[in-house]
Amino acid sequence: MRIDVNLASDPFRRDRPFLVGVWILNAILSLLLVTLGYLAFAYRDDAAEARAAVEQDRRQLSTLQAERARLEGVLRRPENGEVIERSVFLNQLLLRKGISWTRIFSSLEKVVPNSVRLVNIRPQVTGENNVQLDMVVGCQTPEPVIDMLRRMEGSPLFGATQVTSILPPSQSEPLYRYRVLVNYTQRL
Prior knowledge:
Blueprint: H1 16-75, H2 81-97, H3 101-111, E1 117-125, E2 131-139, H4 143-154, E3 158-167, E4 176-184
Antiparallel strand pairs: 1-2, 2-4, 3-4
């Protein structure tokens, strides 16, 4: 049997790898501290420039808002009411003229089956400057119209569809007539 007895007052420990690792870590952290201090000092001027630019933009915004308020005050005068009404009317006409019929029919050609007849179509401009198509379509049987509605809802050019009325065939009109509202992606 062997018994290890250490008679020294300080037992031998292997601390050298630990101390080397601590010195390396200390050097890396010191280098990182110096780098971050340099970057903070370097970007301090950029932050001051950004604050000055923001302040200048705020002054410019307040100037523009004051100018806008002054101009709206001029427009609200009673003698300018007729000019405003005419300008609103002309803007609405320009919006309606901006609707491309060629584009509408080209898009409809892709989703409307051959057996469905387009009886009436009326594009409308919504409050969000989107186009909504108010259509009346006719067909011998309801199935092709249902197919058309499915194609429209699956197409990226058309939005949600809504059938507002259905008229069955009569003696004077041999077709089923559907009135359909559909959103169209043409933006004005």
